Automatic annotation (TrEMBL):
Zn(2+) binds at C262, C311, H312. Gene3D superfamilies: 1.50.10.20. It comes from the Bacteria. It holds the Pfam family LANC_like. This is Lanthionine synthetase-like protein.
Length: 385
């Protein structure tokens, strides 16, 4: 039996237990998904949830949707929505802490913009920033605060000193690096501007709208259009852009790299497809569909997938393909599903039990792909739906 289906350890630290990205909270979510889809029971889910929140929940101001109070609140929200009402009270108790975190992070972001400074991508990104917190608020149905996040993202797209407002002064590692003397522009849905694009578009499709939202979407699309590469692959985008490349108008990346959810074409094409639907642009939707399909049918790209994880492996690609296919016409959808079904299954190079690079994430994706009944919709946190 795999580790995530066993009982939780007797001693669970807050750092591990409250991590959706790398720790036990992902296993709790897996059991919630299994119970919701009839593949498991709520007793096992409750055991894991209880173990993960045994320590005081971490509500420091830098907490994001994959760690700390927002991560715990998200998992409890899904448990309360689909399971016993016992989770309703603790979920409600965490909502105020999450809202306080979001407001503090919004205030810090606006202060940074008022000062004309460039952002660190963990300010706005999906994995640790305000886009991820916005994804949680969207799932929770908290429209008022979500609109504040959307307003921030609109402002983030306004150019600053000749570069896009999301251009960060840091390297893709999130740290200063002499190889990126002028910072970089990031194309990954996990850390770059496709994450905010996806949230802006999905919220617009939901009917949650703020002034300037469509204009912000168009500014991001203009940037992605400017850096779209066309060659043997029908369309692809660099992973990151240096200041020198931006100034020269040309990327040094010669071909599409790993077709992952986090940085590759599947994640970018997903965001583009959401935006195409939000703006009513069928031509852009077809471009996104062709790019996604090509990433799955290009042997060079497919062979660069070396693990089965959600973040950068086949589990994430298969799940993204399923959700993408559900939004397209029958013929395109069937081609995407057929291509995804032929992806190799590499030996899982999973790191721990987390959602992003761990075994719980792999099992979550498998559970969602195999389910015959609706699940929790946990993958809305990846902005796939």
């Amino acid at each position: 039996m795999t580790a995530e289906l066993l009982a939780p350890p007797a001693e669970v630290s807050a750092q591990w237990g409250q991590s959706l990205a790398k720790g036990g909270l992902a296993t709790a979510l897996l059991h919630i998904e299994r119970a919701t889809t009839g593949r498991g029971d709520w007793e096992a889910a409750h055991e894991w949830i209880t173990a993960c929140v045994r320590q005081p929940v971490n509500s420091f101001s830098g907490a994001g949707v994959f760690y700390g109070a927002p991560a715990v609140a998200h998992v409890l929200h899904l448990a309360a929505l689909h399971g016993p009402r016992v989770y309703e009270r603790p979920r409600m108790g965490l909502n105020a802490a999450v809202e306080d975190i979001v407001r503090k992070r919004l205030a810090a972001a606006h202060h940074r913009m008022d000062a004309g400074q460039r952002p660190a991508f963990h300010e706005f990104d999906l994995l640790s920033g305000l886009t991820g917190l916005g994804a949680h608020l969207r799932v929770r149905g908290e429209q008022e605060l979500l609109r504040e996040v959307l307003g921030y993202l609109v402002r983030l797209t306004v150019p600053v000193h000749g570069r896009s407002g999301w251009w960060t002064h840091l390297a893709p590692s999130g740290e200063p690096d002499e190889r990126y003397p002028g910072g970089h522009g990031n194309f990954g849905i996990a850390h770059g501007i496709p994450g905010p694009l996806a949230l802006l578009a999905l919220a617009h499709l939901d009917g949650t709208r703020v002034p300037g939202q469509l204009e912000a979407i168009e500014r991001i699309l203009d940037w992605l259009d400017a850096w779209q590469q066309n060659g043997a692959a029908r369309a692809w985008w660099p992973e990151a852009l240096t200041a020198a490349e931006a100034d020269q108008g040309e990327t040094r990346q010669s071909k599409p790299l790993r077709p992952s959810w986090c940085y590759g074409t599947p994640g970018i094409a997903t965001a583009l497809h959401h935006a195409a639907r939000a703006t009513g642009d069928p031509a852009r939707a077809r471009t996104a569909e062709a790019a996604f399909l090509d990433a799955l049918e290009d042997p060079d790209q497919v062979h660069s997938l070396t693990d089965e994880t959600v973040c950068h492996g086949t589990a994430g690609v298969r799940l993204a393909a399923r959700r993408f296919a559900e939004r397209t016409d029958h013929t395109t959808g069937m081609r995407i599903l057929a291509a995804a079904s032929t992806l190799p299954t590499p030996v899982p190079a999973a790191t721990g039990q987390g959602l992003l690079e761990g075994t719980a994430g792999i099992s979550l994706a498998r559970c969602s792909l195999a389910a015959e009944t609706p699940g929790t919709g946990w993958d809305a946190l990846l902005l796939l739906v």
